[in-house]
Write a structure and sequence with these properties.
alpha/beta, 8-stranded mixed beta sheet, binds flavin-adenine dinucleotide, single chain, 9-stranded mixed beta sheet, FAD/NAD(P)-binding domain, about 425 residues
């Protein structure tokens, strides 16, 4: 008799959603994490359930604008060249995925799973009694220049073809929605069906609490190794050896650290992102506002105004880059007018595969090990549906959406 039906490795949004879905289905579940639930990358994001965000970060416009993005003094992208030279295959594969045919394939895969995002998350929000954390004012995307707006035109057409609801508006209407904006506005899009979360960690904490109330087990320790055998898997968590029918690796950008899981052989990288919080400044915007040229969102949330975003290609171990924080502070003032000193700052690690698609599926070497990581910019949005797929796989059921495109052993470029 095994100790658990499922051991979940990592209590971010993806792991906590997996644990809660599996427990709701009646599986015996142990959730392991050395840190409090929702304290990793799921803590500091831009709080947006971005069901419209089906265009991958690596797309043809990146190739067109690469010199400006990489070498411009005022760029939302920053690359640590030493790290890039140490990881040439990941970098080349990431760029290869910017080709139009690959970008189109990736966007279609994202659109397919995105269509199920709300169905995966809403039952967990209800289960956790967290409806009060969810806001329905949509998301506003703003472009300051015609060139940038035209660069994103193909993405809007793709969304339209996918039936994603939005309204294209001019500067006057954008300002009527968000009078606090100060940057030049060429055009804007209001994704009126998008939602946001007042406090992502609070949502995950409530999901975790509900998981425990339903009889789920929690162990605050790291998983270091998994050893699959026919019919099960042995999981080393802290000092304990646990015997389970299945294990799921949901350790986000740290998933390669679990020996024997198969994740260590996959091209998992990280896109580092930052946020600044300005306590008491929540009133500056009334919904998440993304500024295309700035590469970040301004979000009203429980702790105040959060400016979150930018991409830094660098290792998990590199220290906080103060230049990135200064960039967000400077651009934040351009966007919203003078801001006081931030009350806190944060660095997080988006788990990113070179094709910007998550890994969701059984490990190639064992059907007892499930992989569920690599959600890059969209983990908050896709965590719920990923958790439901994990529960399906742990139960031996076929998920009700195609997941072959997310297989760990797919072609990555
Ligand atoms: C600036 C920024 C803005 C973003 N904005 C959005 C947004 O608006 N909308 C959206 O959908 N997404 C957004 N994202 C992306 C989203 O935050 C991530 O995709 C998501 O949080 C990843 O969740 P996760 O559960 O995979 O990882 P994490 O939240 O990082 O959780 C992984 C957990 O695994 C644990 N762990 C690590 N190693 C081990 C181990 N060996 N054993 C056990 N546990 C372990 C860690 O302690 C951690 O708790 C943003 C990201 C950033 C950086």
């Amino acid at each position: 008799m095994q100790d658990f039906d499922l051991v979940v490795v990592g209590a971010g949004i993806v792991g906590t959603a997996s644990a809660l879905w599996a427990r709701k289905r009646g599986l015996s579940v142990l959730l392991c994490d050395p840190n409090p639930p929702g304290s990793g990358t799921s803590f500091g994001n831009a709080c947006t359930l971005a069901t419209y965000a089906v265009m991958p970060v690596n797309n043809p416009s990146i190739l067109r604008n690469l010199p400006k993005l990489m070498f411009g003094s005022d760029s939302p992208l920053s690359v640590d060249y030493l790290h890039a030279m140490r990881n040439p295959l990941w970098m080349l594969s990431f760029l290869a995925n910017c080709r139009p045919a690959r970008a189109d394939h990736i966007a279609r895969q994202l659109a397919d799973i995105m269509g199920h995002a709300d169905a995966g998350l809403n039952p967990l929000i209800a289960e956790a009694g967290a409806e009060d954390l969810i806001h329905n004012r949509g998301q506003l995307s703003v472009w300051s220049t015609r060139a940038a707006a035209e660069g994103d035109r193909a993405g809007l057409e793709f969304r339209k073809a996918q039936g994603i609801p939005f309204r294209e508006i001019g500067p006057a209407e954008a300002l009527a929605l968000e009078p606090g904006l100060k940057q030049p506005i060429h055009s804007a899009v209001h994704y009126h069906a998008a939602r946001s979360i007042e406090d992502p960690q609070e949502l995950i904490t409530r999901m975790h609490r509900r998981f425990l109330a339903l009889g789920g087990q929690w162990k605050q320790a790291a998983v270091t190794e998994t050893r699959a055998y026919t019919g099960g898997v042995e999981v080393t968590c802290g000092e304990d050896r646990i015997d389970a029918a299945h294990v799921v690796i949901t350790a986000g950008a740290h998933s390669k650290s679990v020996r024997g899981s198969g994740a260590e052989h996959l091209p998992l990288g990280t896109e580092r992102g930052y946020h600044l919080i300005f306590g008491g400044e929540k009133h500056r915007v009334t919904r998440p506002v993304g500024w295309a040229e700035g590469g970040f969102y301004a979000v009203p949330m429980a702790q105040g105004l959060r400016l979150a975003g930018t991409v830094e290609i660098a290792s998990l171990r590199k220290r906080v880059n103060q230049g990135r924080l200064a960039y967000i502070a400077r651009k934040g003032a351009e966007m919203l007018g003078p801001l006081p000193e931030p009350t806190s700052h944060w660095l997080g690690y988006r788990p990113t595969m070179p094709d910007s698609l998550p890994v969701i599926g059984r490990a190639p070497h064992s059907d007892r090990i499930i992989h569920a990581f690599g959600h890059q910019h969209l983990g908050l949005t896709l965590g719920g549906i990923t958790g439901r797929i994990v529960a399906d796989l742990a139960e031996g059921r076929q998920p009700n959406l195609p997941i072959a495109g997310f297989a760990p052993d797919r072609r990555y470029a």
